[in-house]
What we know:
By secondary structure, the chain is an all-alpha fold. The protein is 82% helix and 0% strand. The chain contains four helices and no strands. α3 packs antiparallel against α4. The relative contact order is 0.06. The chain crosses the membrane at residues 6-23, 44-62, 82-102.
Amino acid sequence: MTLTAANGGVLLAIVIMALATYLTRAGGVFVMSRVPIGPRVERFINAMAGSVLVAVITPMAVNGDGGARMALVATAAVMLALRKPLPAITAGILTAALWRLAAS
Protein backbone atom coordinates (compact mmCIF):
# COMPACT_ATOMS: atom_id res chain seq x y z
CA MET A 1 0.00 0.00 0.00
CA THR A 2 1.40 3.38 -0.95
CA LEU A 3 0.07 6.77 0.02
CA THR A 4 0.55 9.64 -2.37
CA ALA A 5 0.65 13.27 -1.36
CA ALA A 6 -2.30 13.89 -3.64
CA ASN A 7 -5.84 12.83 -2.78
CA GLY A 8 -5.39 13.26 0.98
CA GLY A 9 -2.63 10.66 1.37
CA VAL A 10 -0.68 12.82 3.82
CA LEU A 11 -3.76 13.47 5.93
CA LEU A 12 -4.58 9.76 5.94
CA ALA A 13 -1.03 8.93 7.08
CA ILE A 14 -1.29 11.46 9.92
CA VAL A 15 -4.64 10.03 11.02
CA ILE A 16 -3.28 6.46 10.95
CA MET A 17 -0.21 7.46 12.99
CA ALA A 18 -2.35 9.36 15.51
CA LEU A 19 -4.67 6.36 15.87
CA ALA A 20 -1.72 4.00 16.35
CA THR A 21 -0.25 6.30 19.00
CA TYR A 22 -3.56 6.56 20.82
CA LEU A 23 -4.16 2.80 20.74
CA THR A 24 -0.65 2.13 22.05
CA ARG A 25 -1.07 4.52 24.95
CA ALA A 26 -4.63 3.46 25.76
CA GLY A 27 -3.63 -0.19 25.48
CA GLY A 28 -0.78 0.36 27.92
CA VAL A 29 -3.09 1.98 30.44
CA PHE A 30 -5.64 -0.82 29.94
CA VAL A 31 -3.05 -3.59 30.42
CA MET A 32 -1.32 -1.94 33.38
CA SER A 33 -4.65 -1.33 35.13
CA ARG A 34 -4.97 -5.12 35.37
CA VAL A 35 -1.42 -5.80 36.59
CA PRO A 36 -0.86 -5.62 40.34
CA ILE A 37 2.00 -3.21 40.98
CA GLY A 38 4.27 -5.02 43.40
CA PRO A 39 7.93 -4.38 44.14
CA ARG A 40 9.05 -6.59 41.26
CA VAL A 41 6.85 -4.83 38.68
CA GLU A 42 7.88 -1.43 40.03
CA ARG A 43 11.58 -2.33 39.64
CA PHE A 44 10.89 -3.46 36.07
CA ILE A 45 9.10 -0.20 35.20
CA ASN A 46 11.89 1.91 36.71
CA ALA A 47 14.57 -0.06 34.86
CA MET A 48 12.61 0.16 31.60
CA ALA A 49 12.42 3.96 31.81
CA GLY A 50 16.19 4.25 32.12
CA SER A 51 16.90 1.78 29.35
CA VAL A 52 14.56 3.61 26.95
CA LEU A 53 16.29 6.88 27.77
CA VAL A 54 19.71 5.36 27.09
CA ALA A 55 18.45 3.82 23.84
CA VAL A 56 17.31 7.25 22.65
CA ILE A 57 20.39 9.20 23.75
CA THR A 58 23.19 6.81 22.73
CA PRO A 59 22.76 7.10 18.94
CA MET A 60 22.67 10.88 19.24
CA ALA A 61 25.88 10.86 21.29
CA VAL A 62 27.62 8.55 18.82
CA ASN A 63 26.32 9.89 15.49
CA GLY A 64 25.30 13.43 16.38
CA ASP A 65 27.06 16.62 15.42
CA GLY A 66 28.92 18.90 17.79
CA GLY A 67 25.74 20.73 18.76
CA ALA A 68 24.03 17.50 19.80
CA ARG A 69 27.01 16.36 21.82
CA MET A 70 27.43 19.71 23.56
CA ALA A 71 23.70 19.74 24.33
CA LEU A 72 24.06 16.32 25.97
CA VAL A 73 27.00 17.55 28.03
CA ALA A 74 25.14 20.70 29.09
CA THR A 75 22.00 18.75 29.96
CA ALA A 76 23.95 16.22 32.03
CA ALA A 77 25.93 18.93 33.84
CA VAL A 78 22.86 20.96 34.78
CA MET A 79 20.95 17.83 35.81
CA LEU A 80 23.81 16.70 38.06
CA ALA A 81 24.14 20.17 39.56
CA LEU A 82 20.48 21.05 40.11
CA ARG A 83 18.68 17.67 40.05
CA LYS A 84 15.80 19.32 38.16
CA PRO A 85 14.84 18.22 34.65
CA LEU A 86 13.34 21.47 33.32
CA PRO A 87 16.49 23.61 33.72
CA ALA A 88 18.56 20.72 32.32
CA ILE A 89 16.35 20.43 29.24
CA THR A 90 16.44 24.20 28.80
CA ALA A 91 20.24 24.20 29.01
CA GLY A 92 20.46 21.45 26.39
CA ILE A 93 18.13 23.21 23.97
CA LEU A 94 19.91 26.56 24.39
CA THR A 95 23.32 24.95 23.97
CA ALA A 96 22.31 23.20 20.74
CA ALA A 97 20.69 26.38 19.41
CA LEU A 98 23.69 28.57 20.21
CA TRP A 99 26.14 26.00 18.82
CA ARG A 100 24.24 25.85 15.53
CA LEU A 101 23.83 29.62 15.42
CA ALA A 102 27.57 30.07 15.83
CA ALA A 103 28.26 27.41 13.18
CA SER A 104 26.07 29.10 10.56
